[in-house]
From TrEMBL:
<comment type="similarity">
    <text>Belongs to the glycosyl hydrolase 18 family. Chitinase class II subfamily.</text>
</comment>
<dbReference type="InterPro" id="IPR029070">
    <property type="entry name" value="Chitinase_insertion_sf"/>
</dbReference>
<dbReference type="InterPro" id="IPR001223">
    <property type="entry name" value="Glyco_hydro18_cat"/>
</dbReference>
<dbReference type="InterPro" id="IPR017853">
    <property type="entry name" value="GH"/>
</dbReference>
<dbReference type="InterPro" id="IPR001579">
    <property type="entry name" value="Glyco_hydro_18_chit_AS"/>
</dbReference>
<dbReference type="GO" id="GO:0004568">
    <property type="term" value="F:chitinase activity"/>
</dbReference>
<keyword id="KW-0147">Chitin-binding</keyword>
<dbReference type="GO" id="GO:0005576">
    <property type="term" value="C:extracellular region"/>
</dbReference>
<dbReference type="GO" id="GO:0006032">
    <property type="term" value="P:chitin catabolic process"/>
</dbReference>
<feature type="signal peptide">
    <location>
        <begin position="1"/>
        <end position="19"/>
    </location>
</feature>
<dbReference type="InterPro" id="IPR011583">
    <property type="entry name" value="Chitinase_II/V-like_cat"/>
</dbReference>
<dbReference type="InterPro" id="IPR002557">
    <property type="entry name" value="Chitin-bd_dom"/>
</dbReference>
<keyword id="KW-0326">Glycosidase</keyword>
<dbReference type="Pfam" id="PF00704">
    <property type="entry name" value="Glyco_hydro_18"/>
</dbReference>
<dbReference type="InterPro" id="IPR050314">
    <property type="entry name" value="Glycosyl_Hydrlase_18"/>
</dbReference>
<protein>
    <submittedName>
        <fullName>CSON015396 protein</fullName>
    </submittedName>
</protein>
<keyword id="KW-0732">Signal</keyword>
Length: 440
């Protein structure tokens, strides 16, 4: 009995030591620092500090308010670069050992003088001839920061960059940084290069053709990145198209180009959630993503259920955690329901952290399969299935101790997960244990 207790405690402690990260990017130009629930983030990325070709660093707006979010359990890092700043500057910095050293020293100065936990480099994106320079830049910064501070980086999961142009030295980068944040979104959009895909999903979990979360994760893992260093990024925003024919609304339908030039092309969750009651909503069972349409407008979006499905991939692949872009897009004021931070709470819930929206229920959508036939999930051993939740919480899967399921809402489908190699679910402890305890 004593051995059993010790083994159970060992597994529990090991699980705690490997608790997954929840990385939260926030755009600092809007000061929502007082609204952020720090318990829902293990890292907060202040986005974005600027860089120039000489290695100088500029601090983002409202920096003082945001850096005060740092606690024992929540680290605060300065994110440098971004989609609209840094590509040219990073290229120039990385090409010179002297400028790399200057930049690295400036990173250390900023971290130490502001009481930060580290630096995040968001270079979007290096060219194929900059593979070595990309790693050299990170190495220079990490060597200067040392083990006392974190260095993380944000990267693409797109085939065009990963395979076609081979821009990342994955083993070299993995050996240098503490975490690699996979920007697993913007896979489809209203651009001429994506015209043949038609209206499509911003961040599909699976896809017969084109990019997907599964493909991106798999590439980084096969390329040599340790799963424990990868965080899976999810979007808190949608992508809107203008349909060529309002009568053709299925994914893949043709669209009119350049609708993105309008302000509404990339709506935040706190904007499009108000459309839930008036637009037609559909959930695709292959990509596990919802979309909605009204008239000629078609939007790929995220909701609590799709965020949980994405977060579950971090468990499936045993990744180091999840990442969100960006906190500003969530319903932090509870405008669309009684729940504040519904997507961030769903992201936490999906990886097993305690967070829920007790006053919120998912919007009912029509379910359809547009790409691939799916079947009802059954246990791999024993008998029994679970198709509808009758109460909320974590439970043993019927007839199979190697699985468990989570019910976030009564009356909706559960989220079924595997315990992991050599582990079984203890329904009394609501925890994994070694193969010595049953699920009774």
């Amino acid at each position: 009995m004593k051995l059993l207790i010790l083994l159970t405690l060992f597994v529990a402690l090991a699980a705690e030591c490997k608790a997954k990260e929840v990385v939260c990017y926030v755009m600092t130009e809007n000061d929502i620092s007082s609204k952020i629930d720090k318990s829902l983030c293990t890292m907060i990325m202040l986005s974005f500090g600027t860089v120039d070709a000489y290695g100088n660093i500029g601090l983002p707006s409202n920096f003082a308010s945001y850096k005060a979010l740092r606690t024992t359990n929540t680290k605060v890092l300065l994110a440098l670069g971004g989609a609209n700043n840094g590509k040219y500057a990073f290229s120039q910095i990385a090409a010179s050992a002297t400028v790399r050293a200057t930049f690295a020293q400036n990173c250390l100065n900023v971290v130490q003088s502001n009481g930060l936990d580290g630096i995040d480099i968001d270079w979007e994106f290096p060219d194929s001839n900059e593979r070595a320079n990309f790693v050299a830049l990170h190495q220079a910064v990490k060597n200067k920061l040392g083990s006392s501070y974190l260095l993380t980086t944000a990267v693409s999961v797109g085939k065009w960059l990963l395979e076609t142009n081979n821009v990342y030295d994955i083993p070299g980068l993995s050996a240098t940084v503490n975490f690699i944040h996979l920007m697993a979104y913007d896979m489809h959009m209203d651009e001429d290069w994506d015209l043949s895909a038609g209206v499509n999903f911003n961040a599909p979990i699976s896809a017969n053709s084109g990019d997907s979360l599964n493909k991106g994760i798999d590439y980084w893992l096969k390329g040599g990145a340790p799963a424990s260093k990868l965080t899976l990024g999810v979007p808190f925003y949608g992508r809107t198209y203008q349909l060529s024919d309002p009568a053709k609304t299925a994914p893949g339908s043709p669209f009119l180009m350049f609708y993105q030039r309008q302000d509404s092309y990339k709506p935040s969750y706190n904007v499009y959630c108000s459309r839930f009651t008036s637009w037609t909503k559909v959930r695709d069972t292959f990509t596990l993503c919802p979309y909605m349409y009204s008239g000629s407008q078609w939007t790929s979006y995220e909701d609590e259920q799709s965020i949980i499905e994405k977060a579950k991939l971090a468990n499936t692949y045993n990744l180091g955690g999840v990442m969100s872009w960006a906190l500003n897009h969530d319903d932090y004021n509870g405008v669309c329901s009684s729940c504040k931070w519904p997507l961030l709470k769903a992201l936490n819930s999906g990886i097993g952290r305690a967070a829920s929206c007790s006053g919120s229920v998912p919007v009912v959508v029509t379910t359809t399969t547009t790409q691939k036939t799916t079947t009802t999930t059954k246990s791999s051993s024993g008998t029994g299935t679970i198709t509808t939740c009758t109460s909320t919480g974590y439970f043993a899967y019927p007839g199979d101790c190697t699985k468990y399921y989570q019910c976030a809402w009564v009356g909706y489908a559960p989220y079924i997960m595997a315990c992991g190699s050599g582990l079984k679910w203890n329904n009394q402890a609501k925890y994994f244990t070694l193969n010595l305890i049953t699920m009774e």
